[in-house]
Amino acid sequence: MELLMFKPLSLIWTVPFWIQKVTRNVLKELLEKYGKVIDREKEDKKLGMPQLEGAIAVIKDYDLPLSPQQFIDEISPIYRERWPKAKPLPGANRPMKHPQKHGVPFALASNSKRANVDFKISYHQAILSKGWKEQFLVILGGDQVKSRKPSPHLFLEAAKRMGVDAAYCLVIEDSLVGVRTANAAGMKVVAVPSQSEADYASFADSVLHSLLEFQPELWDLPPFKDWVDTALPIEPIYASCLFSNGFLSEAEVEQMRPWIIDVNNNHIADQHMQLSLVGFIRGFNHKETLMDLEVVIEEEKAIASASLDLPMFLHHI
């Protein structure tokens, strides 16, 4: 859970968006051990629950032959083994970099124990050598406050430690429990749900499909400056390949059509290379025809070339 502070709003990010898929797979594997099949809809509704409450709910839902503490003792070591392998969801790194750059106080507040929060974020880099942990003015775990979510104490304490009134906080959440907690704390809330958006619409001020849709300027924050024309570059994908006769081959990435940006490549022949793929998102014009393809390709090559000048790619060149 994270909290950004700015005028006239501050932002609370309440869930580890990078860890979600990993944790679900861990539960799926544990349930299979006991001959059970995970119910994704039920698990979505458990997002944001305190650890003990969540353990009790899982045991009840799947009729597991475990006590809550036995369940926690069995699953916790698997989580800790998988957390370092978890990757941020698309768009998670953008708000990581943004607040500190613009002098915006930023806090992380999670229902998890503080030790687990520190462990989860210690493996993720946000700005070159600077990790996620260094981005936050305040980091707060659920064991550091009187009551966890759905009590508003966690959010209110995070705002207090940053010296910002709750009315000037914006929460970014993916759990319905967290969305309601933000409401109870008197804060604005943007939901990025993993389940049906229907449950969130009546509680959240805004509902997004992805963190890539988050627009700080709508909340009186400085806008992101990482757009190239009408395209949004995303973090690079890495692959090994063979460059030969002007073409890339043997690339270890499926469903990809590589293009050579640098036309001055005559001096390169039959060389194995490490390739950084510049990806970007932009609107697609369905009226485009095959005759327009060459123009589109040139536009996309120009966008990709310009993207290489952005800070996120400079240290890869």
Q: What attributes does this structure have?
A:
11 helices; 7-stranded mixed β-sheet; 317 residues; globular; 19% strand; alpha/beta
Can you walk through the features of this model?
The protein is an alpha/beta fold. It has eleven helices and twelve strands. It has helices at residues 20-33, 40-46, 51-62, 68-82, 93-101, 114-121, 153-162, 176-184, 198-201, 293-307, 311-314, and strands at residues 2-5, 10-13, 106-110, 125-127, 130-131, 138-141, 169-173, 188-191, 206-207, 232-244, 247-249, 271-281. Strands 1, 2, 3, 6, 7, 8 and 9 form a seven-stranded mixed sheet that branches. Strand 4 (125-127) and strand 5 form a beta hairpin. Helix 3 (51-62) packs across helix 4 (68-82). The longest helix is centred in the N-terminal third of the chain and has 15 residues, at 68-82. It is globular.
